[in-house]
Amino acid sequence: MNLAATAATTRAVIADDERLMREQLRARLAEVWPELEIVAEAKNGLEAVELVDTHRPDIVFLDIRMPGLTGVDAARQIAQLPPKGGSEGEDDDTLPEIVFITAYDQYAVEAFEQGVADYVLKPAERDRLALTVQRIRQRLAARAGGGDAPGGANLQQLLHQLSARMNPGQAPQYLQWIQASVGQAIQMIPVEEVLFFISDEKYTRVQTAQVEALIRKPIKELVDEIDPRLFWQIHRSTLVNVTAIASVTRDFRGRQIVAVKGHPEKLEVSRSYTGLFKGM
After folding, report:
1. Which helix (H) or strand (E) holds 206?
2. Taking the CA of residue 134 as centre, how many other CA atoms within 13 Å lie in the half-sphere pointing to its CB?
3. Spatial separation of the C-alpha atoms in residues 277 and 47, rounded to whole Å
4. Where would I find the beta strands (DSSP E) of the chain?
5. Euclidean distance between CA atoms 272 and 235, whole angstroms
6. How far is it, in rounded angstroms, from Cα 213 to Cα 101?
7. What domains, with CATH codes, occur in the chain?
8. Nearest to 128, CA basis, from 51, 224, 28
9. Residue 40 in 3-state DSSP?
10. Tens of pLDDT, residues 117-143
11. Which among 204, 175, 201 has a CA at the least distance from the CA of 188?
């Protein structure tokens, strides 16, 4: 993502299945943020993911309810896009700012007020949109100045909350066991015993205090299948058990490093997730 975003270079993608709503939001944005460049418009969630992957904007305006792929599901996929021109293991993986567009105030959950993401009610009112723009510009300025980015794992928790509100009565079913390869054997590992998951191009390593195992499921799929209250994503390639975190320190580069209970390996926190450990 464009970390050197300024008022003149900030770029955005708008996604809404209603053409009139896209036009109205574009017009309102031109009033409150005339320097903002709208690089593309999407008519559905799938198109939004593709356009974000192509253009790598600083901001994505996503209608929460779209056919085919909801704005929440699109945000999940956008959050897991690999860095442009690189692999999932690279560190330059800053996420775009997410702004949800909704016709209902029912989605105004607490996480919005914590700065994980923002939301705009339809039709976009000038004053409320101006407040959103002010928040976004402050966050982008903090990033450009080397400040911490919003916590990506907090974004995952917000997306789980939004899914629950969109599908009331459907309690999420999180994985309780991991079926993994240990040498030539298959072993059933309780999820709560996993210290962390680390992915490479083909496999994900499952690490417990006693066992190192492999599965063929990438982090971007595990994120949606594991309780976000138990596992935090601290890098595109890493999920860590919150109860297994011993400490968080900074190395000589200023990067946050997670020490894990019961294991000598140190886990690096990438820019998109430094907001998880505020004050470090």
Report:
1. strand 204-207
2. 6
3. 33
4. 11-15, 37-42, 59-63, 97-102, 118-121, 177-182, 185-190, 196-199, 204-207, 212-215, 231-235, 238-241, 245-250, 256-260, 266-268
5. 8
6. 41
7. 11-166 (3.40.50.2300), 177-277 (2.40.50.1020)
8. 28
9. strand
10. 788 888 888 888 998 899 889 888 877
11. 175
Task: List CB contacts of 134: < 8 A, sequence separation 6 or more.
Answer: none
Neighbours of 210 (CB within 10 A): 9
User: pLDDT by residue (tens digit) across 195-222?
Assistant: 999 998 788 999 999 999 999 988 888 8
Whether 214 and 206 have beta carbons less than 8 Å apart is answered as yes
Q: What does the alpha-carbon distance between residue 115 and residue 119 come to, in Å, rounded to a whole number?
A: 10
- Tokens 């195992």 found at: 213
Structure pTM?
Answer: 0.71
Return the structure tokens found at 48.
Answer: 């939004």
Number of H-type helices and E-type strands within the chain? 7, 15
**Which residues have a Cβ under 8 Å from the Cβ of 129 and sit 6 or more positions away?**
28, 29, 32, 120
